[in-house]
Write a structure and sequence with these properties.
This protein is an alpha/beta fold. It contains 14 helices and 13 strands. It has two domains: 32 residues; 375 residues. The strands form two sheets. The protein has an eleven-stranded mixed beta sheet, sandwiched between helices. A hairpin with a 6-residue loop joins strand 1 and strand 2.
Length: 417
């Protein structure tokens, strides 16, 4: 038997054993429905806290960030709590960085917990406040869409970290869809993500078409990428301006989206030559150590954009024979006439990956955090830690062999100053 084929079969056997090990857990998770809960959903939203009126701006002094929420809120007590259930109504809120808060539960018991300060706002007031803040900062906005296994607390905390990490003082908008926040609820998260497609694309369309919106920096993580890309395509098709190029800087972190689907569709929609020439670009962060996307690959049967697995064993064998790592990336778009700028850049963080899952290097690895900040700020051309690869649009982040190990926590500022 050919050696490369034998090695491929061995790898497939390892994956099969791993899947069989997880099968009881995955099956139990997949066949267990998301519980409705012991309380009618209408009771959660009956209180007027779910329908706030206009408030003075100073009431949001400790809540500088903006949120768009499709989670079901529990408005029975103060503060309002966001649940993992769906809501047919999109609500708007302001929030701050995590802090210790005294919480009174439904039984009247007071306890101290770390929470994200949150206040639901009047819809029109939210848009007016966002317009005012955006106009103060040359029409620039950063929009963050979270991924799988997130609660509002964890995803809002990440939004606040992105704000601190980037150093930008522009408005930060966080779109929160009802991820279950549990490892074994991937199928439920995927279902809720698809359910949110219409809500998110309606919001993004409205945001992109505001006269005061000049530039949207869109950061999408994991499963959230499958919300973001179709929504951008929808805005492009239905934009009232020439090319909706104000959605200009698109950053996909550990994207859980079919790599071939991305390759096939992206040239015809998101990265057309005209939009690339108008400074639209996509930066993708990938890692071969991303265990979460490894599971997603096994679950879906095809490689994910955020993990450079080789689906074709002959391509993997060819790379090995040439002395290259067995990593396969999304192909760069081919144009009839090449644009003046480069629209797609892939950053491989395998060598600097951090965390048990390797699924959030852009917020956990010092070198990845630094590169991410440069991309957000539009200064990536000055990044000195990128190493060229065999592909012109793919770069690796590699540690300095003679340098000290960077302090990931300090560089990424996981906690507020």
């Amino acid at each position: 038997m050919d050696k490369s084929l034998a090695e491929w079969l061995t790898g497939q056997a390892r994956q099969l054993r791993f899947c069989l090990f997880l099968l009881p857990l995955l099956v139990s998770a997949c066949i267990s429905p998301v519980a409705y809960g012991p309380i009618p959903h209408s009771d959660y939203v009956a209180n007027d806290r779910c329908r706030p009126g206009a408030r003075p701006e100073e009431q949001f002094a400790d809540k500088p960030y903006f949120a768009v929420i499709s989670r079901l809120p529990d408005c029975r007590t103060e503060p309002v709590v966001l649940l993992s259930q769906r809501s047919d109504t999109v609500r708007y809120a302001r929030f701050g960085t995590p802090a210790d808060m005294e919480i009174t539960d439904a039984k009247g018991k007071v306890k101290t917990e770390e929470r994200v300060p949150l206040a639901l706002t009047n819809n029109q007031q939210w848009w007016d406040d966002l317009a005012a803040e955006t106009e103060k900062h040359d029409g620039r906005i950063l929009l963050y869409v979270h991924g799988y296994k997130e609660t509002f607390f964890t995803s809002a905390r990440d939004s606040a970290q992105i704000a601190r990490l980037s150093g930008l003082e522009i408005p930060i908008v966080h779109y929160s869809w009802p991820s279950q926040g549990e490892f074994l609820k991937y199928a439920a998260d995927e279902t809720n993500m698809y359910y949110n497609e219409r809500q998110f694309r309606s919001f993004l369309t409205r945001l992109a078409q505001q006269p005061w919106t000049k530039e949207i920096i869109l950061v999408a993580h994991s499963l959230g990428v499958r919300l973001a890309i179709p929504a951008i395509e929808f805005v492009d098709r239905n934009s009232s301006n020439a090319d909706s190029s104000n959605i200009s800087n698109i950053i996909l972190a550990s994207p859980d989206i079919d790599r071939q689907d991305f390759e096939r569709d992206i040239a015809e929609t998101v990265l057309t030559m005209r939009r690339v020439n108008n400074n639209r670009r996509i930066t993708v962060y990938v890692s071969a150590k991303d265990r979460a996307l490894g599971l997603s690959y096994n679950f879906h049967g095809y490689p994910r954009l955020g993990r450079p697995d080789c689906f074709n064993p002959f391509e993997a064998a060819s790379l090995r024979e040439q002395g290259y790592p067995e990593r396969c990336y999304a192909a760069k778009t081919t144009y009839d006439t090449e644009p003046e700028k480069s629209g797609l850049t892939i950053i491989d963080t395998t060598a600097v990956s951090r965390g048990q899952s390797g699924h959030s290097d852009y917020l956990r690895s010092a070198l990845a955090c630094s590169d991410f900040v440069a991309v957000v700020n539009g200064t990536e051309s000055k990044s000195s830690k990128r190493k060229a690869t065999r592909l012109l649009h793919v770069f690796e982040l590699v540690p300095d062999p003679d340098g000290a190990e960077p302090d990931d926590l300090a560089v990424c500022r996981r906690k507020p100053d």
